[in-house]
Structure formats: C-alpha cells, structure tokens
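lol so apparently i was supposed to do this last week
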Amino acid sequence: MESSAVVSNSEVAEVLMDIAVLLDMEGVKFKPRAYENAARAIESLDRDVEEIYVEGGLDALMEIPGVGESIAKKIEELLKTGHLKYYEDLKRQVPVNIESLASVEGLGPKTIKELYLQLGVKTLEDLEAAARSGRIRGIPGFGVKREANILRSIDALKSSRGRFLLGDVLTTVRSILHRFESMSEVKAIEVSGSVRRWKETVGDVDFLVISDQPAKVMDVFVSLPQVASVHSHGVTRSSVRLKSNMNADIRVIPEQSFGAALQYFTGSKPHNIALRRIAIARGWKLNEYGLFEGREQVAGATEVDVYGKLGLQWIPPELRENKGEIEAAQQGKLPHLVEYSDVKGDLQVHTTWTDGTNSIASMADEALKTGLEYIAITDHTKGLTVVHGLDEARIRTQMREIDKLNRSLSGIQILKGCEVNIRRDGSLDIEDSALADLDIVGAAVHSYWTLPEAEQTERLIKVMANDNVDFIIHPTSREIGKRPPIQLDFYRIIQAAKDTDTILEIDSYPNRLDLKDDYVRRCVEAGVKLSIDTDAHARWQLHFREFGVATARRGWATRDDIVNTRSVKDLLDMLK
Ligand code: DGT
Ligand code: CA
Ligand code: CA
Ligand code: ZN
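anyway here it is w/ zinc ion bound
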C-alpha cells in the first residue's frame, strides 16, 4: 500500500480479516471474531469508509456495526498512513503467509494452523507440495478427499493468478475515462481489450485516445492518482501499474486509424487473426492502422467501416472470441443481443431478514431507481444457519409484510420468493406447502460442493423436478479464482431444465457470473430459459446487473431468452 493512498473498503476489510486469522493462530480467544465481524461490516457498507472518516472522524467509524474504539483507531491509522503497525507486528510473529493460504477455498484459520504445526506449511508452494506428495491425507481429520479438494482449489486459484475480476476494476477504468473526457485536448477516448469485451477477468486495461496534443495526454496519464508506478512514458504510448496492481496502457491514435485501432486492440486475438485472414483473401492488408489495398487505406476511421468493407455486420465486442460470430456476421445473421434496458425485474434480492444489509423497502426503492418494475425477495432458508435462514413461519410473516408494502408502493412490485437451500440428497429445507404459496422459488446449492459428477447431477435434477421450484440460483456455485464449479453433466442439466420448465439463473455477482458465458450459449442453443439476477445483499449491489447482462450477451442471449425481460404478469404466467 502506498502512503497517503486511497484505501478502499475491501482493502480495510482484508487487513481486518487477516488480523482475525493471525490472532486465531496465536490461540487468542474472542478477539478474532470481533475483527471478523468488523471486516464483514466494512465490506458490506454502501459508502466509502474513507468518506465516513473524513466527514465524521473516529466517532463516525465507531457507528459502523461491530466497530469499537480499538478497531476504529486501527482503521484510522490505516486510512491516514496506509499502514497498520499492529498488523505488521502480528505478521512478523506468525511466520506463515496467511494472505495466500487463506485465499485457498476450504482453508480456514484452524486448518492453516494445523498444517503449519504438522507439516510446516508456510506458503502456497509448501501447501501444494504437501498435497501433491500425499502428506496431507495422513493428518488426523484430513483424509484423501480433503487433500484432493485442496489441490482442486489450488488449481482454480492458479488459473486466475495475475488476472483481475472485471467487477473489481471497472470503477477505476470509468474514473480514468471520465478524467480524460473532461480534457479539452482529448477528442475521443475508448477502452479496448478484454474490458471492452466484458470478459469476467482481465489481464490489463488498454486505452485509446484521439488528441492532437499527445504529450499532454501522456503527462496526465502517468500522474493519475490511481497510478502506483510508471513502466514507460513515451510520446504517444505509455504504460503504468495501477494501485490495484493491474497494468494499464494508453495509446494516442491518428483519427483516420481510430476505428482500426479500436478493432485491433479490442481483440480477441483469435478474432483478429480470423478477420485478417478474410482481408488477405481479398488481397488486402488489415492492421491497427487500417484496412489497406496496396498503400491506399480503404477503411480505418470507424469500426463499422472496417467490418463493412470486409463484408461483415459490425460485431458487438462481447461476441469477438472467434466462436462463430464472424461467419454469422458474413451472413447478416448476428443475434439481436439482450440489452441492459430490456431487463424489467430482478429475481434474486436479499434483505435484513437474513444476511442482507438493507430492508425490503430500501431494496425496492433502489431497484426502482435503476429502472426496474419488479423484484423478488429471495432470502435464504433455515438450512443456512450461519445467516439465520428463514423457516416456514418467518417466510409467512415476510409474505404479509410484502403484501403490506405492495399496497403502499408505486412504480415497483415486490414478489414473494426465497432462495431455498438444497440438501445433499436433492431435497429442500422448506415444506412444499410453504413454497407453493410464494410467487417464485429459486433453489441453490450451498454445501457438498465436491460430490462426484453423477451424484451432483442427480441432486439438481431432483430439485428441478419439484413443481414448486421455478429456477436454479447460481447453478454451478463457482466463485471465480476461489471455488471451482460443482461437477455437473451439463447436457443432462439442460435436458432436465427443458423437461421440467425450470429456469437457470445468470447470477450477476462479479465473482460468480454463474451461469458463465459458455453455459449461457449452450442454454440459448437448446432453448432453455434464463434469468439475469443480481443476488444483491445491499442496495449498491443492485447495480451488478450490468455484469449479468454482459455475460448473457457473451453467451449470445437475446431478449426472448431472458425471462425477466417480460412484464411481471407475463413472468408470473409462465412460472410453474
Ligand atoms: P487480457 O488483457 O489478457 O485480459 O486480454 P486482452 O484481449 O485485452 O489482450 P491484450 O491486452 O494482451 O491485447 C489487447 C488486444 O490486442 C488483444 O485482444 C488483441 C490484440 N493483440 C495483442 N497481441 C496480438 C497479436 O499478437 N496478434 C493479434 N492479431 N492481435 C493481438
Ligand atoms: Ca488487456
Ligand atoms: Ca494490453
Ligand atoms: Zn446466496
């Protein structure tokens, strides 16, 4: 962390969480839970903790639930200096790399401590070596299965290393775009690369600019407040590392080449290679400066010109992966992709009735502001004891409250729902008679993630066969870079969804995006109905919808494929 750095809520939460783990390893009682609770509270704030502190000082920090004086002072030190001496000292006392080990799914403080005491595991590398050589299974309480799961989690972690969740970087990208848009020297700025294609994770971010004062643009770029260090500072190109650790490049492009550059740097690489082949077949040359016949530029100022001259419809960036989009564009058969404004409802919303931070009315209010006509309240059910899931009686109490709210609200309708918990055997933890009285029921896996494929597939098929279950929430239950997807025979899941008229969800939460793009595409091709929901546990998370819409678009989904583009009446008519 830089000194006088802007410290984000998630950075503060991460430090507090690490302290909890370190204290746990030292065998300290009670204190670890206090740090853990404070970390959770800060993570789910809908304001910047920095802003709270600047406005109200230490007292305001102490008003955050779970933050007492001692923790508030530590947050203050972090915000003011970017460092926390207490944390640094603790890290020196415990010789184990908590940050990296705790990022492995299934490794809690107790496990990390046990692995250190038994096998001397201090780092991720130690952990992997121990697991690969079969030494973990021998520790009492571990076993072969647990060892295999640790290895699977390490693999998931490794495949995401060096990449960033789009949801974590988009705010920074947008603030950089806004900075340049306000400069009179900048005629145009666009972000290209994987960010423009809305990939779920991105390696770096690539900006393109039109300006007749490139030197000025470069100076502003390398001294942006988001920049941690400068790799290169050139005349028309610069490259930096942002404070988030991600690299960012910027290029100033001549106006007559801007479309060609945007096309080239948006990629993907396989898409570009296929496109260049078409140019070559016509005796032309395609590069980041334009489409050329001999030395004459035949297109380049806009992307529409470049694609058009090659005999193609303009292709939405989300489709540019060379997975059939070029052939479709040649035949004029690109799908009309679902758009953000098509979505009228959100079918997965959480509230203070369980682990959400805002009330039903507050979530409805924010949903209305984002342009929605209806939301379904889908709090967790009793099997999820850690969040005090609802039982049948509380579901009925909540239903009465929603009826009451609906009588007083205008502009938005609240549907009665729940996120019912799926047991190991595919049965549900709420009575069918209660589920039958709800407007909409989503079912979700929250446990037994590592069942073998055949058993896991049967488990979900049994759920879909239940007449009260309208949709499956985050169907593969993955967490990007953390928990691998549950193992499913997706062909059979698709068949069952069709046979039972069950909707599969696209969960918009940036670290879930579940179903993911490839599975969305298979559902679209098979005619399985999908929903785009936010899984919001706080007001601000209702804005995650754009990530779900992007995932749907990357899966070639049109408005008709997405059930919550319908009016509430049409939606209710089509549910089971
Ligand atoms: P990332 O950053 O790993 O998430 O993915 P991209 O797609 O943003 O890749 P990046 O930043 O390495 O390059 C941006 C675009 O530039 C890429 O999508 C396509 C284009 N590009 C880069 N290298 C090549 C290349 O060797 N050949 C071709 N045809 N295009 C390239
Ligand atoms: Ca990139
Ligand atoms: Ca790049
Ligand atoms: Zn959930």
